[in-house]
């Protein structure tokens, strides 16, 4: 009875230990337990197993004792390996922290550089505003000057028309006078002489006009030569620009090849994120420099516009203005070449940024590979845990401890599965982020294509950047091919990830199968333990001590495994932080790319404004051509007017010839007497031309006729005098008349000094006043001012006094 109680007591203890651990068993464990229950024998069969296997159990004692001692060495070795792995993980963590610190420093530097770039951009905007205000002022001044030039041209045309009308009126008046006043020969001869004098003045005016026209032609020829020189220099500058563009294209191609080689080298490096950010900041600075240079180009173009306007206004200062225009054109061409260089460099930097984005993607892939490696390490640790559990099962062989260890292992595996699920979710989130990055990269590439298309449009407008456009298209094709290759690589990586997931699932299935097998073995051991419970009762004390030792070792192993798991979780957290940091860096890169695109758009707008200014320059050149055509038309009109003057002079010569024939019957003595008033009036007309606006009246013809009638009376009274006596008298009269003319000329030259020195206006005023004198000679002079009438009366009195003295001298001589 006593041994039966002990058996029952011993059999109750493991059941009481196993009861609280039953709810932790998984579904597979439950299935295995059902199988073990079905396979376990009945209590009737227990003594058979105990009797049959009693010697075997006796023989198994030394085996169990010997099996516990040699298994401690691999556990210590595994602990050292775990410590080495922990040291490696700590070193990796230190390196990652150092990289994060360096990346943060670079962030601060990048933010400072961005602030500086914003300041420079603000300054550039202010300069642009000032340039726009100056341009508006220049345009307003241009409009005002154009309006003035138009008014002057209209006034000149109206004056020419008035002159033509006056000439026509004069001709009509002359014809009417010839038709009506045939009897008044003296007045007609005087008018003819005045007409001759006017013709002489007209010929002088014609000669001066011809000289002015010759000077204008010479100036026009000089300007044409200068324009040809300018066009030659422009062509030469264009050829130089073409050569420079070709050289820059070659240098750009060489730089592209160098960058491709460097990209291949940089793919193996992990620290290129710094260079990527710095280069993107440089792209922004270059874009701002492009804005500043475009503002300078606008200023240079405004200077060239002002120079062209001054060339229109001041024909005499053409040489200085041409030199300034040359300088401005050179500066504008240099600025344009520099802007082209900057645009090419910005395109190259954009390509570099794209390549660096590709390297960052490679780094992301490498990080994913490292995550997969960590997962493989976790799997290996799980396998090592399984091996440790198997060794514990071999050493322990107690059902309760094995069940507890299996439950803990199942929980850890569930945790590992949860960790794997979390890792897979992280991988999925990373894949989503990668897809987003690729979408953003495609958008950036589309925007880059749009920018390059706009650049191609500008190149077609300038007719000089066609080669660059072709090269950019070829680069785009290569970049598209590279992006397609990257997409193919990404698809390959996705397929590899899928294969790895399938492998992990297969491995999990295998692990589950092994767990099921272990549960079956445990159930088998339970049945064996139940069957051999009688034989094990004596050995329970020894097994209890061995179990305690194994439990302590398992506890130490669990502590070590917990440390390893904590280290792995810390590594995973750091990996996640690194991923977040890389995501932030990618967002910053995208922001910098967007800023670069905005800068490129601003540069394109500035170029469009420069094109508009060039179109305005072309319009101004067209206006110059129209003005030159108008000048040619005016010259043609002047030639026609000269021809009309010649015709009028021919008509006047014909009229004078006719009148001389009609006056052939007069005697020589009458002609001599008639010449006195004619010469007197001729001198008066010469004096009147210098002060055309002051005096328009002369000695009345009635008084002169009285003088001429008095002379033949004296001849009749002194009929006994000889012809020889009359000749010296006439000579004296001629001399006295000449003296009078000289006195009058000297008196009126002092009065003519106040008249305007401009020759052309003087000729016009003289001709108009002379024509008015012809028309108003025989009219009443009552419309003159009282001061002028008094002066004229004084002059008339002086002339009459001198003429009376001459007559007295003549009478006394006789």
UniProtKB/TrEMBL annotation:
Coiled coil feature spans: 249-303, 336-447, 483-637
Superkingdom classification of source: Eukaryota
Biased composition (Polar residues): 1-21, 33-43, 764-774
Basic and acidic residues: bias regions: 49-59, 656-674, 742-753
Region (Disordered): 1-81, 654-729, 742-797
Presence of the UniProt keyword Metal-binding in the record: no
GO biological process, alphabetically ordered: reciprocal meiotic recombination
Pfam families: WEMBL
Alphabetical UniProt keywords: Coiled coil
Family: Belongs to the WEB family.
UniProt protein name: WEB family protein At3g02930, chloroplastic
Provenance organism: Elaeis guineensis var. tenera
């Amino acid at each position: 009875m006593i041994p039966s109680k002990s058996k029952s007591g011993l059999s109750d203890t493991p059941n009481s230990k196993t009861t609280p651990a039953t709810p932790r068993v998984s579904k597979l464990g439950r299935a295995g337990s059902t199988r073990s229950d079905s396979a376990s024998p009945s209590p009737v069969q227990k003594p058979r197993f105990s009797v049959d296997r009693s010697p075997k159990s006796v023989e198994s004692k030394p085996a169990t004792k010997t099996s516990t001692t040699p298994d401690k060495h691999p556990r210590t070795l595994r602990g050292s390996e775990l410590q080495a792995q922990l040291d490696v993980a700590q070193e990796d963590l230190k390196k990652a922290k150092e990289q994060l610190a360096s990346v943060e420093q670079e962030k601060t530097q990048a933010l400072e550089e961005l602030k500086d770039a914003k300041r420079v951009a603000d300054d550039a905007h202010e300069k642009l505003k000032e340039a726009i205000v100056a341009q508006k002022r220049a345009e307003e001044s241009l409009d005002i000057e154009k309006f003035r030039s138009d008014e002057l041209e209209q006034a000149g045309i109206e004056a020419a028309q008035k002159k033509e009308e006056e000439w026509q009126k004069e001709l009509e008046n002359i014809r009417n006078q010839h038709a009506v006043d045939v009897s008044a020969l003296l007045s007609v001869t005087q008018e003819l002489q005045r007409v001759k004098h006017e013709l002489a003045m007209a010929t002088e005016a014609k000669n001066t006009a011809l000289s002015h026209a010759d000077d204008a032609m010479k100036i026009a020829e000089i300007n044409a030569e200068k324009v040809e020189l300018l066009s030659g220099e422009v062509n030469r500058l264009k050829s130089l620009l073409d050569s420079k563009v070709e050289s820059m294209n070659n240098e750009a191609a060489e730089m592209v090849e160098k960058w491709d080689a460097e990209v291949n080298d940089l793919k193996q490096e992990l620290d290129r994120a710094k260079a990527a950010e710095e280069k993107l900041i440089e792209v922004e600075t270059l874009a701002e420099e492009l804005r500043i240079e475009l503002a300078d180009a606008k200023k240079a173009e405004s200077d060239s516009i002002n120079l062209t306007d001054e060339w229109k206004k001041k024909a005499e200062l053409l040489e200085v203005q041409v030199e300034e225009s040359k300088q401005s054109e050179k500066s504008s061409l240099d600025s344009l070449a520099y802007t082209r260089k900057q645009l090419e460099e910005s395109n190259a930097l954009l390509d570099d940024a794209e390549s660096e984005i590709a390297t960052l993607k490679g780094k992301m892939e490498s990080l994913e590979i490292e995550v997969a490696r960590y997962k493989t390490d976790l799997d290996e640790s799980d396998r090592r845990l399984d091996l440790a559990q198997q060794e514990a099962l071999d050493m322990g062989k107690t059902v309760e401890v094995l069940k507890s260890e299996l439950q803990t292992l199942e929980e850890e595996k569930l945790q590992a599965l949860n960790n794997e699920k979390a890792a897979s979710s992280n991988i999925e989130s990373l894949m989503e982020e990668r897809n987003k990055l690729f979408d953003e990269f495609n958008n950036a590439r589309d925007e880059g294509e749009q920018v390059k298309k706009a650049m191609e449009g500008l190149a077609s407008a300038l007719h000089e950047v066609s080669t660059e456009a072709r090269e950019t298209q070829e680069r785009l094709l290569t970049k598209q091919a590279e992006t397609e290759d990257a997409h193919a690589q990404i698809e390959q990586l996705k397929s590899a990830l899928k294969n790895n997931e399938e492998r992990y699932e297969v491995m999990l299935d295998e692990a589950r199968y092994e767990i099921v097998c272990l549960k079956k073995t445990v159930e088998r051991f339970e049945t064996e333990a139940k069957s051999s419970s009688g034989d094990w009762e004596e050995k329970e004390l020894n097994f209890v001590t061995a179990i305690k030792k194994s439990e302590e070792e398992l506890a130490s192993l669990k502590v070590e495994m917990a440390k390893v798991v904590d280290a792995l979780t810390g590594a995973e957290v750091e990996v996640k932080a690194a991923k977040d940091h890389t995501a932030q860096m990618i967002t910053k890169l995208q922001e910098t790319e967007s800023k670069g695109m905005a800068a490129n758009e601003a540069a394109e707008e500035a170029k469009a404004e420069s094109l508009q200014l060039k179109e305005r320059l072309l319009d101004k050149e067209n206006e110059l051509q129209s003005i030159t055509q108008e000048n040619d038309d005016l010259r043609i009109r002047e030639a026609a007017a000269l021809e009309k003057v010649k015709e009028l002079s021919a008509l006047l010569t014909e009229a004078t010839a006719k009148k001389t024939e009609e006056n052939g019957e007069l005697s020589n003595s009458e002609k001599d007497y008639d010449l006195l008033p004619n010469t007197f009036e001729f001198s008066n007309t010469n004096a009147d031309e210098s002060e055309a606006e002051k005096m328009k009246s002369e000695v009345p013809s009635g008084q002169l006729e009285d003088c001429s009638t008095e002379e033949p009376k004296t001849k009749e009274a002194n009929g006994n005098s000889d012809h020889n006596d009359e000749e010296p008298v006439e000579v004296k009269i001629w001399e006295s008349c000449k003296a009078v003319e000289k006195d009058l000329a000297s008196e009126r030259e002092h009065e003519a000094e106040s008249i305007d020195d401009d020759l052309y206006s003087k000729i016009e005023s003289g001709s108009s006043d002379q024509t008015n004198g012809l028309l108003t000679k025989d009219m009443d002079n009552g419309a003159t001012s009282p001061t002028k009438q008094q002066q004229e009366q004084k002059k008339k009195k002086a002339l009459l006094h001198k003429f009376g003295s001459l007559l007295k001298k003549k009478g006394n001589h006789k």
